[in-house]
Amino acid sequence: MPRPRPRAVLSLLCTALLAPVLAFAPPRDAPEPPRAPDLGARDDAQGPDDAGAFTHPGVLVSRDQLDRVRRKVRAGAEPWASAFQAMRKSRYAADDYTARPVAVVACKPYAKPAACTAEREDAIAAWTHALLWAVTGDRSHAEHAVRLMDAWSGVLKDHTEGNAGLQAAWAGSTWARAAELMKHSYDGWPDARVKRFEHMLRHAYLGEFDAEVADYNGNWDLTMTDATLAIAVFLDDRALFDRAVARFRARVPAYFYLRTDGPLPVPPPGGTADSPQKIREYWFGQRTFVDGLGQESCRNFEHVGYALAATAHIAETAHHQGVDLYAEVRDRMRAAVEWHARHQLGEPMPKQLCGGKPELTMGPDLEVMLNHLQNRLGVPVPNAERLAERMRPAGTDDLFVAWETLTHARNPGAGGTT
């Protein structure tokens, strides 16, 4: 029997070695398997073992959660694969997306100045590219996120006009998420530019959140608190973090009602709604209060959605820093998400509530709170789950909520198995 030629032997050997790999190879049109960036690469990254330190990355999403997202996307699992594709195909992920910074963002109420829209959208684009970097490991996305942030930190000086505080909160909360992730995962953001971005957040954003908004609709206060807490973690500012926590504790019970509050809702902290008549006026004329009703429910569900999202963002970031704000508001938030989801899904509302005709305009605001209640605590919230599934993959409200099916759907973090 003739001996096989060396080339034939080599061919057979390669085939045998590659067979297990080829059996599990993705199809030709599948995306490249995500490559994990090092989420602890920078020397200034701190961990929970450092006395008094913050855990990084730890604004809205944790390292464990991002690792799980990467694995799910790589496996083509749902709903993460569809959520990732929706994000990647969005205008915010475009390779040619260009920043539009201005020195002064002037936002008048009930107007839509171009600079205000540009600031919010550029922040969402930075967050989008930061997430793309975290999932794919493609440095071009990291460079893009940093480029957008550098463009604004080199120009912006102030926010003005009547909506300055709310505008700064919407953009500031998103900037802080993007900056936190990039600072603690990417080695290509020069320290001097990081410091410049920190300076921008401290001097062109935080001052706007000190505005007196006690008598404004509560989504303002909660969104400002969301931004303050996020920026505090990014800046490693414990005093600022503690002030935001105190603000959360004062406002959430004054926004979402429980029967245990008494016959009337808790008055807003520091406000003038300090009598039964004024409280009812503040709650858009409501005289009947049920578990889960929000201060703006009879205005529209859209603004309640902002408040729900901001409340969840605050509690989620605090959770990553070892502070369990969720426990303090669990029953209140369970009632709120279930009551609003039930009616958003079509259950008729009694006439004594919002005249029986609520404006059912809730946006993509449930994923973070749903994840905690359902996947960490095992608390049943069937209406919220149904509504979230109907909305998936949740995109962005173009204000301060973006891609939360991707980041938080069935994603409890460390120790979670769902």
UniProtKB/TrEMBL annotation:
Protein name: Alginate lyase domain-containing protein
Signal peptide interval: 1-25
Region of interest (Disordered), ranges: 25-57
Pfam short name (any one): Alginate_lyase
Gene Ontology MF term list: lyase activity
Keyword vocabulary terms for this entry: Lyase, Signal
GO cellular component labels: periplasmic space
Keyword Cell membrane listed: no
InterPro entries in the record: Alginate_lyase_dom, Chondroitin_lyas
Ranges of residues in domain Alginate lyase: 121-250, 298-345
